Amino acid sequence: MAILAQRLWAQRGRLALWLPVAMGAGNAAYFTLSREPAMGWVVALVMVALAGPVLVRWRGGWLRVRIGAGLSCAMACGFLAAWAAAHHAPPFPDLPHRATHLRGQVMAVEDVASPDGGTRRRVDIGHVQLLGGIDAGMPPMRRVIRLRLRDDDTQALAPGMWVTVRALLRPPMPPDLPGGYDAQRRAWFAGIGGSGRALDVPVITAGGAGGWNLWLGRVRAHVAARIMAVLPGQRGAMAVTLLTGRSGGISARTRADFADSGLAHLLAVAGLHLGIVMGLGIAAVRMVLALSEHAALRWPCRQVAAVAGLALGCGYVLLTGAHLPAQRSLVMAAVATLAILTGRRVVSLRSLALVAGGFLLLEPEEMLELPMQMSVAAVMALVAGFEACANPLRLLREGEYAWQRAVGRIAHPALASILAGVACLPVGMAHFADVGAWFVLANLIAVPLAALWIMPCGMLALLLMPLGLEALALVPMGWGNAVVIWLAHHVAAWPGAHVGVPQMPMWGLALFFLGLCWLCLWTRPAWRAWGVVPIVIAMTTPWMVRAPDVLVPAQGRMLAVVDGPDLLAGPRGHVDRFVLGDWARVLDRRVGVLADDMATPDGQMTCRAGVCVLARGGHRIMMQWRDAQRASCVGVDVFVTLSGGHGACRDVARRIDALTLWRSGAQALYLDPYRGVEVRADRQVRGARPWVMGPGQHGMPNLPMARAE
């Protein structure tokens, strides 16, 4: 213990880096609960959070007190931040199940890709009031309704307008796979109350007055229209994405090509784009200041340029919609600018820890989402990797021979692509269930092109736009966009560019982040090496999780059976392609058809006249999707019916029918030849949480409170 304490004391400068890790563990502990913690536990955690700083102040000289109190306080703060954010959000409204008229204010207008390859318009409507039935005259909703407009609706809508429209609404949908992605949790924290489609053309009832965010929305729409007038097609859609953050014009094929080639980050405005914009601003300001002898000799040009670059970055983030990845990158840039002003190290793991800790406290729900995980993994790997490789890179850049200096210049972007790509690979396995082999090569070409050609032309186009001369810069920008799109398309077609794998479980992703933190946050090489062990184990977890044998979604119109590498879905004509595609992606299975009369080669499943029986080791699952002749229910462990026939197999102990799906959501059945059938329901996995809607997906009626309430 004395040796361990001595070595920990030598690493005391790195101990503070583990505080955001403990905060993340506290966030994860809250989100993995099956029900809300009792108020007594919340009070106890508040006391732990308050006692931590007191103990550190009182006995901070004792290493075990500093570590124990600091980590306990950080974990309690992370848990409490998640609990407070969940209970601060307003409840889901109870939306009508029929067409209704609504009135509200347009908050945002965006073009989104449609399945047929075109684009559709989507509007976010706030302050919504339902005008029909019991909801007439009720106060406005506290959540946003997201509407898809009609394809033939060409009316110009802008943020700030008040509209009335007849629409068909639905609440956020539950997962179609127990343990799958929870769209209701995402909508709960994002302030979305439901979605739907407009049945009529909206009627504008008031003009576009509004706050500064609505004004920015109109500016983004105007800039996007000017860009598309010069650059039609996907070149213009990519330019609109980079300069306004509106990515709805990117087609499904282009998105797939960018994802398979490892270039998807170019279409998501985040740290890379902000760094390029700030770098351009800093370089321009320093060049201007260098033209003045007085300024160059007497002014702190580096600090002035850094502040100017940060101001330009703030404007760019606002123009592109201030999405969370861009906000996170802007905070990191602000910390780096502060380091320049105070003469401290610009990029460090302490800066990352400070920014990550702040976001875990302010927006704890983002810890479960892809952007936060990608950003933290990539930045941590980049900072720690370049910290470890600083001396070899310096020797190459300062080499005696020209080939050494050339290799040094190439090694820097290559190492950045490798570090960021490898660190984000497990995150992609957990969210997309695939891996790619050519991301390093694609990024070696696309990222320098974006930094040296595309983004400078884009910034110049924004400067020339008030003069009506934006075409002078947009046309060259379109050339660069065309090269990147061509590169993504061809790299995505190479063998190994898109390799499907089973989806990594969340506990496997947590194990990976633990190993990554251990690998990056310590300085002792012997300690760092142990971080490889959990990373290797995490990479194998997709194959440790057993796939279900039968899947039934919450809507109850279809089912699927896993047969080796195939996913057989039926009945014909009732298969939801979106749900089936999601199942096939998560489980890494080929899609097949569950026919009326068929049998698997191993004889474990047979189907006759709308009834299928899956049998293993004396245990049986019977599935019926239409009323047919009465089948034998002898020896059946679980009976699944989609036909609504309540009289069949009444003696079976476990039945899954429309009522079961209405109450419990999607079902996953696991058939073990020795232990029988295990059934997992969506509500069983998610538990009773604020964002889990009740049976039938009913929210809280939008009624005024009584005087006593």
**In angstroms, what separates the terminal alpha carbons?**
58 Å
Total of DSSP H or I helical runs spanning 4+ residues: 25
Uncertain segments of ≥5 residues (pLDDT<50)? Answer: none
Specify the structural class: alpha+beta
Average pLDDT, to the nearest integer? Answer: 87
Q: Determine and state the CATH class of the domain at 100-226.
A: Mainly Beta
- What percent of residues are in strands? 15-25%
Region (Disordered): 690-709
Domain ComEC/Rec2-related protein: 242-524
Organism: Novacetimonas maltaceti
Main location: membrane
Structure description:
The protein is α+β, with helices and mostly antiparallel strands and 709 residues long. Among the domains are: 1-88; 100-226, OB fold (Dihydrolipoamide Acetyltransferase, E2P); 550-674, no CATH class. The chain has 25 helices and 20 strands. The strands form 4 sheets. A 6-stranded mixed β-sheet has the order 12-11-10-9-19-20. Helix 16 (390-397) runs antiparallel to helix 17 (402-431) and helix 18 runs antiparallel to helix 19 (471-492). The radius of gyration is 28 Å and the shape is globular. The chain starts with a helix and ends in a 23-residue tail after the last helix.
